[in-house]
Amino acid sequence: MGTPEHVIVVTGASSGIGRSVAEALLAQGRRVINVDARHPEWTHPGLSTMVANLTDAADIRRVATELASSHPISALVNNAGATRPGTIDSLQTSDLLDLAHLHLLAPTLLTQALLPSLRSCKQGRIVNVASRAALGKPERIAYAATKAGLIGLTRTLAMELGRDGITVNAVAPGPIATKLFRQSNPPEAPQTQRILNSILVGRMGTPEDVSRAVLFFLSPDNGFVTGQVLYVCGGTTLGVAPG
Question: Which residue in 31, 143, 170, 214 is the catalytic one?
Fold first, then answer.
């Protein structure tokens, strides 16, 4: 995946799935730049962090410009996310706009800024972390809509960038035991038990389940796979996934 001096950008790597992705890459000897709203509580010699508010268009543009001018980039993992639970009746405009910036504008502007570097390494990789909720999930109207948009972005970018040697794929997690999941699904809540009962493999997913899928798409050996969505969901999409 490019020469050794190239680095991989992972948004939202301070915790959760992003941290798992970053740790797995660092274990491979890669250098990782974390773009997050806060510094991580963990450290590694190969990890650096750029603090940015990825719900703010101006800050997205700032960090994208800094990345493009300072580092040779071979891969981009658009992982940063938030849920903002709510139905269509309770949806706040600010929540929809924040998630549209976070899940759509940030990946788009980062991709635009990093394209010269991704093209130059001849085997650039973009992996977008979407969600099983893109297929529909009650009380996640803004989240589901913007994550579905991220899948559309993935497929269109794959069509546009394939000739440049850049693959673009998405990983769509189902129920994953992260802090973000627990905030919306407390252990004692009835909906949490319903989610557990729906998982065919009989357990919650882990961040490592997702990071292994991300690493598959990032591998230089998988350059013939692009425009795909891999649901890492324990079987919860069966019966609702598109045919």
Answer: 143
